[in-house]
Amino acid sequence: MSTSDGPTRSNNPLSALLRLLRLPWGRPRSEPADVRPTDPAELGREVRRVQAGIIRDAFKGEVATAGPENSPVKDDADLTYLYRPGHLLVQAERLDEVLTWFRERGEDFGGEPEPVEEPIKGRLVTIRLPSRRDRADDVLATLDELDDHFGRQDDADSPPVATPDHIMYVTTRGGLCPATEPEVPRSRTPWPPQEADPTPAPDPKDKIRVAVVDTGLWMEAIDSDASPWLESDDVFADATDEERVDRTAIHPYAGHGTFVAGVISCLAPETRIEVEGLLTRGGAIWESRIVRQLDEALGDDNHPQLVSISAGTHTRCGRPPLSFAMLAAEHRLAERDDVLVIAAAGNDASDEKFWPAAFSWAVSVGSVDPDRKVSDFSNYGKDWVKIYARGRDLVNAFPVGAYTCHEPPHAGIVRKFDGLAQWSGTSFSTPIVTGLVAAVMRDKRIPARAAWQAVEATAIDEHDTRINEDIRIVGPLT
């Protein structure tokens, strides 16, 4: 990632937006105007600043950023990952060793660390860090020293003793959001198209159970004229996971979880879809909070059979996130046939691993365009992206109201929605794969991993010259 020689800019999203409004492509206007800046590189950097500012505002300062060298950055355009300041995740079985290390280094810290929560009981502990007397970054500098002491572990099967509590976000394109902001669709029908209900309909107790880890569910989409495929009998959320939307000013990332649920419903009617409202703070959440919820869900007797995650993060040193490594160990995700995690590969146009999609036990999903070429925003990598599906210009449910674009070159444009939107990103190729797997589970009455293998067997093999890799594609394209 390139670096900036210019002055550090404000990270406040309002300041960033006002700054954009002073630029020629940022003046308020209505569609269809689309004036692009002459410097694409600076455009991308401005987008990243604005998106990071949204997360900063949502977390009210409880967020820090690191660059490619795992050091703090002054300009959010240079960030590689975000993390929770003042906290570490530690393997529970190594906690005493870590606390002993702090005590032996007592003169270097202004106190002792404090265990504050246990996201996965017996596996993972969150600790609050004391301040450092050298005033170095409390998380990054301390982890460098812990690596020196305990040894560096990069293997998912041998996770590090301690890591940052990374911030996970809805999948990115050189920034911290889906590959595009939502657009007004040209069609009043969903894409992918709605499949016919199965005959006979499955008994309610036999319906496939899917968990969508996302921004929550906008309840007005259920049983609406605009999205009748979202039926109240099958798509639901707890009261705490319902998404509240101001129709006069739809907030960033609103409708993301509803859209994802709609894609699954279109491809796999008569599927029980529970939308978890976890990514509610600027489309982001600490990884420890996601795994705490997933640990509870997977430990339930009526656990989800498919978990669809259209979110993730790059990580410190590119290592597997400790939280998901511990979740996989606790619930034997690499061995079980009855639970499958399907996760977005991310939209950085990069081959750098994006987690949790990059775990071997997950089905990582990249995006292709209708012409079978890898989307210009999609991450890729033959050693970790398992499958591709269309992620360009999908149409599905979205809140009714006015949305003001935040990102250049469209910053300031007001888009008005009436229940559907068009959206792009690996966020949306992921539920295509989830829907395909759920439909096979329903029709063949086979467990999750076997159904995934059946879907994978239908893949089209292509060679993509842009990334110079062989890829495999499933699902509808046109």
TrEMBL record:
Molecular-function GO terms, alphabetical: serine-type endopeptidase activity
| Chain ranges passing through the membrane | none
Task: List compositional bias (Pro residues) regions by residue number.
Answer: 190-202
Sorted keywords for this record are: Hydrolase, Protease, Serine protease
Keyword Coiled coil on entry = no
tRNA processing: present as a keyword of the record?
Answer: no
Residue segments, region Disordered: 176-206
Please list the residue ranges annotated as the Peptidase S8/S53 domain: 206-457
Q: Which residues form the active site?
A: 214 (charge relay system), 256 (charge relay system), 427 (charge relay system)
Q: Which family does it belong to?
A: Belongs to the peptidase S8 family.
Full protein name: S8/S53 family peptidase
